[in-house]
């Protein structure tokens, strides 16, 4: 009778009999659904029997395109069109910028800094803005509206303040715009910001005009004063040349020449 074995001895026996190396399959499963390559004879048959549609008798570009159904304007589109017309009518400065991806906090901060100088930020969809520009005097601004854009508008040309604020936001490029119905590029806005203020120009103009008026007044007064001085000198010389008048009002008789 074979004596009973303990569990530890049984595990040792199994470990001695098991192979020391085992092949374990790793990685993905084998893919068996590859597309089979078509036989060469079948490829020739398919190329010969390929359907070739007949060419149309008239070039499709010469045909009249079908009429597209007209879409009725919604109330929102009419409201946006009226707002765009009001913006372009009531504001002297209109700048076009590229509307890049900005965080809500950065956009709110920039909007607040612009509003301090009474510069408003407006965003309109291009499908409403472009038809308005095509039928207005601002149609030359159409090349600027590519992609997403935003408008910086103000009733007075606050170009210096706007350029200074945009320099602090380098990822918001200035494309161009118009001031007093004059179209300017981005470089034109920068050159405009370097011009002196209107109050300074008015002061220089008033000072120049006052100087010219003073010079004109002095030139006009010079000739009469010189004429008056000459007349006074002429009268003085005549008085010195004339004989002294007596109190009776008749001149003294000339001295008699003694006879020789």
Produce a short descriptive summary.
The protein is of the alpha+beta class and 260 residues long.
Overview of the molecule:
This protein is an alpha+beta fold. The protein is built from 8 helices and 5 strands. It has a 5-stranded antiparallel sheet. The longest helix has 44 residues, at 198-241.
Could you list some keywords that capture this structure?
260 residues; alpha+beta; five-stranded antiparallel beta sheet; 10% strand
Write down the overall geometry.
elongated
Number of strands: 5
Q: Spatial order of the strands in the main sheet?
A: 2-3-1-4-5
Instruction: Figure out the total of helices.
Output: 8
Mean pLDDT across residues: 81
The major beta sheet can be summarized as: 5 strands, antiparallel
- How big a fraction of the residues is strand? 5-15%
What does the radius of gyration come to?
Answer: 51 Å
Order of helices and strands: HHHEHEHEHEEHH
Share of helix, binned:
40-55%
Low-confidence stretches: none
Oligomeric state of the chains in view: single chain
Structure classification: alpha+beta
Instruction: For the record, give the distance between the C-alpha atoms at the N and C termini, rounded to a whole number.
Output: 211 Å
């Amino acid at each position: 009778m074979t004596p009973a074995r303990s569990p530890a001895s049984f595990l040792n026996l199994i470990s001695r009999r098991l192979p020391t190396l085992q092949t374990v399959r790793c990685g993905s499963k084998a893919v068996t659904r590859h597309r089979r390559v078509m036989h060469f004879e079948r490829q020739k048959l398919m190329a010969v029997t390929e359907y070739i549609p007949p060419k149309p008798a008239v070039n499709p570009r010469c045909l009249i395109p079908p009429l597209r159904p007209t879409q009725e304007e919604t109330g929102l589109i009419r409201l946006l069109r009226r707002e765009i017309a009001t913006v372009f009518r009531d504001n002297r400065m209109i700048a076009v910028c590229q509307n890049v991806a900005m965080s809500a906090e950065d956009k709110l901060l920039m909007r607040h800094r612009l509003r301090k100088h009474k510069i408003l930020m407006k965003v309109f969809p291009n499908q409403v803005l472009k038809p308005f520009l095509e039928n207005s005097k601002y149609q030359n601004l159409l090349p600027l509206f590519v992609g997403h854009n935003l408008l910086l508008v103000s009733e007075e040309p606050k170009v210096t303040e706007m350029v200074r604020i945009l320099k602090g936001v380098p990822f918001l490029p200035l494309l161009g715009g118009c001031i007093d119905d004059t179209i300017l590029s981005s470089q034109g806005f920068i050159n405009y910001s370097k011009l002196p203020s209107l109050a300074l120009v008015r002061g220089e103009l008033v000072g120049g005009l006052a100087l010219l008026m003073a010079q004109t007044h002095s030139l006009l007064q010079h000739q009469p004063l010189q004429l008056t001085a000459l007349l006074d000198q002429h009268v003085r010389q005549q008085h010195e040349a004339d004989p002294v008048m007596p109190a009776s009002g008749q001149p003294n008789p000339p001295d008699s020449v003694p006879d020789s």
